[in-house]
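Data deposition worksheet. Section B asks for the primary sequence of the deposited chain exactly as it was used as input, without tags or linkers unless they were present during the calculation. Section C holds the resulting structure in token form. Section D is free text for depositor observations; keep each observation to a single sentence. Incomplete worksheets are returned to the depositor.
Section A, Depositor: J.P.
Section B:
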Amino acid sequence: MAANLPSGNELFVCDLVDVVLKDDMASMEHPFYSLSKNPDYKPRRYEHNGKWIEFRPSVKGLPTIYDKDLIIYAISQLVSGIKEGEDVPKEVEIDPYAFLQFTRRATGGREYQALVDSLDRIDGTRYRTNVVADGTRTDEWMGLIDKAKLQTDAKTGRPRKLKITLSDMIIDAIRERAKVLTLHRDYFSLHKPIQRRIYELARKHCGRQDSWRVSVEVLRKKSGSRASLRGFRRSVRELTNEDPLPDYSVSFDEENDMLCFQTRHTVPGSPKAPWDGRLSTEAYEEAKRVAPGWDVYHLESQWRAWLSENEIEPTFPDRHFQKFCRSWYERRGPAR
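Section C:
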């Protein structure tokens, strides 16, 4: 079934039946969502490599890892339904029944009320982050969605139609395509919050590589878990004993307090070497202009490695490389 996209790309109707599951890399890398099944009202701050992000919960608490299913559903539909080069509409229309089926949930009254609660947490939570470029720090205040509207049958109480206006952060990720990754459909079968979160991190960092190793302490920080290190380590042992993650098997090196994720070779495609196409002379000249002082061939090697790590096949390589060089210079400034 084709997605219904009116002229002007003002509204996207989510009606694609068979879509590839997609998630945005920002929320896979940073702990945007609570791992608690109980309301989590405590603000949180996550810092890594000089960058930070603060989360300020709604009156109903932070959005949970299960609330995130709604965002994953919208992203998956948009990525599958919008052709490359087309503008991405911010507003999406969702059939609540189809959403519950897609995410492997029941479709009774309790599930519809849970959907309303999810919207309250997602819409009410704000986050603030810092961006430093050219010696200036810019603080940004944002939300996961801009607004939502739910139409419900007045007699039965059953939701009929949900419209969500996605945030600029999510729309930008979809536009670039490079900022979304494919998830295994069995992601929705992971019933423990920590399992879902650790799978996200493995998918982001291991990707199509054969393996990824990470210390328990770093994994705990990246996951956003509020458990003590001892409690988190206990959860890690349970995870390795059950080995439930799709795409990756996991083992625990107790001597070095490290987790090792090994690919099951089920991630779409095979391990990729860096993109081996050629850039034009004009691309190198433009790279010199946007990243003055940097060796463009060094930047090219960094770019190619980044393409491989993030599973990207650039449609417009020259343009993509130029954008990479511009971002590189904005983050790092002149070469030293």
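Section D:
The radius of gyration is 21 Å.
Residues 1-8 have pLDDT under 50 and may be disordered.
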